[in-house]
Amino acid sequence: MRLFKQLLGVFAAVMLIITVLAVFAFDVVKIDWIVFMEIQDSFGTQEKPLAVPAQSVPVEGAAYIPGVEPTNPVTADEVSVSRGAQLFSINCSQCHGIDGTGSGTIAAFLVKKKPADLTGEAAQGLSDGQIFMTITDGVFNAENSLFPDVEFSGQCPPLNENLSVRERWDVVNYVRTLGTAQP
Ligand code: HEC
After folding, report:
1. N or C: which end of the chain has fewer CB within 10 A?
2. Does residue 156 have its Cβ closer than 6 Å to ligand 1?
3. Cβ of 175 below 6 Å from ligand 1
4. Could you please report the per-residue DSSP string of 140-176?
5. Which tens digits make up the pLDDT trace of 123-139?
6. What does each C-alpha distance from 126 to 46, 50, 58, 85, 170 come to in angstroms?
7. Can you name the CATH fold of 78-178?
8. C-beta neighbour count of 132 within 10 angstroms
9. Whose CA is nearest to atom 36 of ligand 1?
10. What pLDDT, in 10s, does the model give residues 107-117?
11. Whose CA is nearest to atom 21 of ligand 1?
12. pTM of the model
């Protein structure tokens, strides 16, 4: 009987310790420890990315120099154009339409601004560099935007994170073939 009581005492003590630990482990009582990951000067999800540090060069090499219109370094050969066609159908056709006329499935839902007709004179009148920069930065129009404070306003979106520099030039070469006034 004595032994039983002693065992019961030990058991009660162990349970007490487990309970106390569990209270903290499962955050019933939350202690806000300083976590260094938390207090560092970093960017959270959905926050604007860091500005590119001065003098830095992207891994792929300098795609363009700010303020200077880039020139097309990729020859519009069969490989480039067919790659561009594929990338266009993946990244652009939902808005601009597979034929580039702006008849994509999403176009009907774009209320403020319709996708540009890429076969038309206005778009074909753009230089390769301007089309490249449109793909890179998108087209923003704050006055027409539903979210004037947000950089991405749902018009031509910036696709620099989806398409590498080379891929963007391939798309440019493909967009050129959409023009009716193609020589
Ligand atoms: C979410 C829909 C959407 C996608 C995806 C999209 N665009 Fe656009 N694009 C637009 C809209 C809307 C406009 C018209 C913007 C305006 O006039 O303000 C536009 C305009 C343009 C223009 C004309 C820019 C100018 O200055 O006149 C070009 C060129 C263009 N897009 C190319 C592309 C290419 C190439 C892709 C794929 C890599 C692409 N867009 C993907 C919606 C889209």
Report:
1. C
2. yes
3. yes
4. --GGG-SSTTSS--SSS---TTTS-HHHHHHHHHHHH
5. 898 899 889 988 888 87
6. 32, 30, 26, 19, 16
7. Cytochrome Bc1 Complex; Chain D, domain 2 (1.10.760)
8. 25
9. 92
10. 888 877 788 89
11. 116
12. 0.69
